[in-house]
Amino acid sequence: MAAVTIWNEYRHEREDDEVAAVYPDGIHTTLADALADEHTVRTATLEEPDHGLSDDVLESTDVLVWWGHEAHDEVDDEVVDRVQERVLAGMGLIALHSSHYAKIFKRLMGTSCSLQYREDGGTERLWVVDPGHRIADGLGESIDLPRSEMYGEPFDVPEPDRLVFVSWFEGGEVFRSGCCYRRGSGRIFYFRPGHETYPIYENEEIRRVLRNAVAWASPTDGSPRTFGQRE
Ligand code: ZN
Questions:
Q1: 187 in a structural domain
Q2: Ligand 1 centroid – CA 225 distance (Å)
Q3: Distance from the alpha carbon of residue 12 to the mean position of ligand 1, in angstroms
Q4: Distance, CA 131 to ligand 1 centroid (Å)?
Q5: Which of 28, 55, 174, 218 is the most buried (most CB within 10 A)?
Q6: Cis previous bond, 154, omega within 30
Q7: pLDDT in tens for each of the 231 residues of the chain?
């Protein structure tokens, strides 16, 4: 059981009726509900002081889950610095869907993190391409999402350490939808599904992926990281 903090910018749900109909209590609340069976969960949002990510909160977080879209630029650089430091020290980070453009994800990747997209509500099939991976525990060979936003390659990220999911879209595009990274002692998972106008975080298989990803990204004891001059 990991201590999870779910961060949501929490804008679309308050400004757009179509989104509010899908996620009436905010995407963070639905994500918290998905994780609560196996992990201890709290939430944080953009409008809170320090965006809800004070030193105390980050110090007591094993895995930070991030959902942002329209307000990436409003995230304070000092908070980004703190989150980066915690990831390097071992905190896990799960970046969801449009968080490919979150400041913290771009910082940790060092690339543009750009991609192609088309919001057409078409079908997505998410293939498990690394069936032995912890994040794929309990899944079938693929997950079907009947209505989804298309994300297409090229996805300008560094080559993932492990690739767990590849998406196929009915328009013919493909996308690396489940990418694992290590930065310092921290584990990072980028997971594509989750557009705000489709109830994707209500899907039981997607919820299982989220719980698995938290378990995978949780810090391990490892060995101390010591740097600098050695006597
Ligand atoms: Zn989207």
A1: yes
A2: 37
A3: 11
A4: 26
A5: 28
A6: yes
A7: 999 999 999 999 999 999 999 999 999 999 999 999 999 999 999 999 999 999 999 999 999 999 999 999 999 999 999 999 999 999 999 999 999 999 999 999 999 999 999 999 999 999 999 999 999 999 999 999 999 999 999 999 999 999 999 999 999 999 999 999 999 999 999 999 999 999 999 999 999 999 999 999 999 988 888 899 998
